[in-house]
Every structure is written in C-alpha cells, then in structure tokens.
Amino acid sequence: MVKKMIEFTKLSADELSGLLEDAAKNWLAHDGIWFRCVEEEFGLATAMRLDAKAWAQFAQTEAKRIMKRHKIEQGSGVAGLAKALQYRMYALINEQEILQTSQSSLTFRMKTCRVQEARKRKDLPDFACREVGLVEFGTFAKTIDPRFEIRCLSCPPQVVIGDCWCAWEFSLP
Known about the structure:
Elements: H1 13-42, H2 44-69, H3 77-85, E1 96-102, E2 105-110, H4 114-121, H5 130-144, E3 149-154, E4 166-171
Antiparallel strand pairs: 1-2, 2-4, 3-4
C-alpha cells in the first residue's frame, strides 16, 4: 500500500516552518556526518579538499534556485546578494546579520553556528572553516553577481570579531 504524501496546503504556518527548520537541520547534520566519515577514512586534508569542492557546487546550485524562486537577476549586486542570503538554508537555523555598509559592499555575520556549537557540545575544537567558507560564500556571491570580491573578516581558525562565529565582506569593484 502506498501512503499519501503530506498535503502541505493543509498545514499551518507553524507546521510548515517546523518542517523547513527540521529539513535544514537534517541537511546540515548530513554535511557534518559526511565530513567526519571522509576525515576518518582519508584524513583531514582530503576531507577539507572534498568539502570545498562539494560546497562550491552546492553554493552555486542553492544560489541559482534562490534566484529563480525569488526573481533575483544575475548581476543584481549588493541588493540581490542581501536578498538571496536571507533564503539560504543556514538562515533557517543560524542567527545571521546582513549589514549593507555602502552601495557597493555588505558584511554578512553568522551570529550563531550549529556546526561550531555542536562541536563544542562534543568537546571538539572549533572547525577551521575559513578556507571552505571562502569557496562556499565566494561561489554563492559570484553566482548572484560575478563581479563580487569576498574577504574573510573573522572565521575559525582566525577569529578576530568576538560576537559572531564568522564575518564576510562582499564588495563590488
């Protein structure tokens, strides 16, 4: 017997929000489990290299889907990126802050991070995500507008801003 899928149109806003939050948590848990399995089998250097490769592909796919769904044009600059960042999977489970610092730049700050907080709970060191973040956030931004330049302001292992896990600057030349 085939069960009928959930009829999403009959769910309340709270139920739909909860489903989205659970999906985002599951997505991130899968990413972490995948990484740890690769690290155990092949070592940290290989896990980091493959993680960056996977995030580059995922970030581009995610950006394209967000652009399509929310009618964000390629080349839409700071306004397009600011809008798109609000719809990333992270936005459902991490506290984020987007600050437009000028017409040609914005700063994105990850105030809470489920990955880092999970590592703390397990007594693991901070995940040194700076290099992978440059690939991931850079690819996402350049998919929105290829002119973007990205600069890491703070991120493990070089944390220089104390009230967030990471901070990134996106600017147009």
